[in-house]
Amino acid sequence: MNTNVKTEQKNRQQAELFKNRLAKNFKTLKKWARKNRISCYRLYDRDIPEIPLAADIYTFLPPDTESKEDAFLYINKRNQMISDNSPEAAGIIQEENQRTYLLLYLYERPYEKDDSEEEVWLDTMAEAAAEILEINRESVIIKTRRKQSDGEKRSQYEKTEQSRNILRLTQEQGQLFLINLEDYLDTGLFFDHRPLRKTVRETCKGKTVLNLFCYTGSFSVYAAEGGAKRVTSVDMSNTYLEWAKKNMAANGFTDDRRFSFIRQDVNGFLNQMNAEVPDSERKNRFDIIILDPPTFSNSKRTEHTLDINRDWNELVKKCLNLLNKDGVLYFSTNSRRLIFDETLLPEKTKTQDITASTIPEDYRNKKIHRCWKLSLQ
Questions:
Q1: Could you tell me which residues come within 8 angstroms of residue 117 by beta carbon, excluding any fewer than 6 positions away?
Q2: Structure pTM?
Q3: How remote is the C-alpha of 222 from its chain's centroid?
Q4: Does 77 have pLDDT greater than 60?
Q5: What would you report as the CA-atom Rg of the chain, rounded to the nearest whole angstrom?
Q6: Where are the alpha helices (DSSP H) in 36-135?
Q7: How far is CA 280 from CA 232, 274, 276, 277, 321, in A?
Q8: Could you read off the pLDDT of 160-198 as tens digits, one per residue?
Q9: Is residue 374 within 8 Å of residue 350, measured between CB atoms?
Q10: What's the pLDDT tens digit per position in 273-288?
């Protein structure tokens, strides 16, 4: 048996394994997602070592959806028809499949694989996924995540070369978010922080919230939904701040007096706030602060290069200085190299590792991030 035949046979075998696992996961997770009003989630999380993929499913809302109320009515009607097994249910599911996309992320392999062979393998996996989910092959999008040198680490925030402009609304736990499937490596919504977003929503009523490195404002949307008194969103990217504003508007939050967006380097913002607010004053302090920084950033728009493994404690200390009495700081990181040393923080800092409670049900990888809840005693 020649090498090409062996490779093809191996690809087919792995495709069957992939299909079986997708089918199993989909059967379980689609019921959970329907119950929690979630239309985008992780379907496969490198479950099988020989298939180093992450698969995220996105089912967009109908194009005429203009508000949370529209989404609520549509989802309720859809779920009722499916539960009742009504004659219209099959048609609804078929129509919904036309609005469903699967995003496949290929993670770096521990060994070298020929580019042409990799391309064939990926196409085989994509076809298998499309078949099991009953969606078009063109609706399966492939992206690659690989280790980057320091000089490359901004690329995940920059536009890709090709795009079909797949930019639509999806729903998460009742909130609406604008998703961009192809223009960037990330789509605008990090699924792994879904439980923490819910926690913020449930605990922020009447409070002031500061969302640092806010990206597209998902935490800000949840805070606004939870009845926060004021929400301040800070990010250095004008693109993402505009995106955050659109997400807020999609959920009906447009009051400029309550919801502010600041384009500034977070470190510079914190320095400025710490300088303006003496310890004896409570004027511009916050009840809840969300600090979820990138692992590394060397943007040209700032002189400060961020390395979270080196800078985390200084950022955390600056945030703690801005907390009101009984305030809470949520600090999260994707870095596995970060050494969280409590002795580097102010003496009266109370810390709690809440990572386990912030990992969502659809993630097999329980080390996707780490998260701490901090306050001042």
A1: 7
A2: 0.92
A3: 13
A4: yes
A5: 22
A6: 68-84, 89-97, 115-133
A7: 22, 12, 11, 8, 11
A8: 555 566 789 999 999 999 999 998 889 999 999 999 999
A9: yes
A10: 998 766 555 556 899 9
Give the closest residue to 74 by CA, choosing from 43, 95, 101, 103.
Answer: 95
- The pair of structure tokens assigned to 92 is 């609804």
Taking the CA atoms of 266, 272, 274 and 276 in sequence, report the sign of the dihedral they define.
negative
The pairing of strands 100-107 and 140-145 is parallel
| 126 contacts: CB under 8 Å, gap ≥ 6 | 102, 104, 137, 140, 142
d(CA 333, CA 374): 14
Residue 263, pLDDT > 60, answer: yes
> Which residues are within 8 A (CB) of 1 and not within 5 positions of it... i.e. 6 or more apart?
9
Q: Please state, in angstroms and as integers, the Cα–Cα distance from residue 40 to each residue in 15, 19, 91, 107, 258, following that order.
A: 23, 19, 21, 20, 29
Tell me whether strands 286-291 and 296-297 are parallel, antiparallel or unpaired.
unpaired
Closest CA to 52 of 4, 128, 118: 118
**Other C-beta atoms within 10 Å of 190: how many?**
18
* Interatomic CA distance for residues 138 and 272, integer angstroms: 48
Q: What is the 3-state secondary structure (H, E, C) of 323-359?
A: EEEEEEEEEEECCCCCCCCHHHCCCCEEEEECHHHHC
Query: Per the structure block, which two tokens stand in for 308?
Result: 């979270």
Report the sign of the C-alpha dihedral through residues 162, 47, 373, 336, in that order. Answer: negative
Angstrom distance (rounded) from CA 196 to CA 274: 26
Could you give the angle at the alpha carbon of 277 between the alpha carbons of 275 and 281, nearest 5°?
Answer: 155
pLDDT digits (tens, 9 = 90+) for 94-125: 999 999 999 999 987 767 788 899 999 999 99
The residue type at 167:
L
Tokens of 309: 């493994």
Nearest to 328 by CA among 286, 292, 363: 286
